[in-house]
Amino acid sequence: MINAPAHDLEVVKQILRRYFPGAEARVFGSRAGGNAKPYSDLDIVIVGAAKLDARALAGAKEEFEESDIPFRVDVLDWHRISEEFRQIIARHYEVLW
Asked: d(Cα 16, Cα 9) in Å, to the nearest integer?
């Protein structure tokens, strides 16, 4: 279970679906591990068929910064992270959609 208020997660989903339709969004880190604090960041990796468009990634990040979500949202591209980091994420994550 993702440790974040449902209404905030809905905003996150709306933004991500707008920029990355058809991709899978995986939450990892403290909000997926159950040890998050109220203002812990939300770590998300987007898993798509290919590298994400850099403009889409920047647009999503900007929308998160301008949103009313009370915590930081970090978005990463699965195809731009190391294999070692992928293995760490694969140990424990929750699918956002």
From this structure: 10
Return the domain boundaries, the chain: 4-93
Assess contact for 50 and 32: CB atoms under 8 A.
no
pLDDT tens digits, one per residue of 22-39: 999 999 999 998 889 988
Q: What is the CA radius of gyration of the chain?
A: 12
Total-model pTM? 0.94
For the annotated catalytic residues, the residue numbers are 41, 43
Tell whether domain 4-93 is in CATH 3.30.460.10. yes
- Would you state the pLDDT for residue 68? 96
Q: Do residues 32 and 92 make contact, with C-beta atoms less than 8 angstroms apart?
A: yes
What does the alpha-carbon distance between residue 59 and residue 83 come to, in Å, rounded to a whole number?
26
Q: How far is it, in rounded angstroms, from Cα 82 to Cα 22?
A: 22
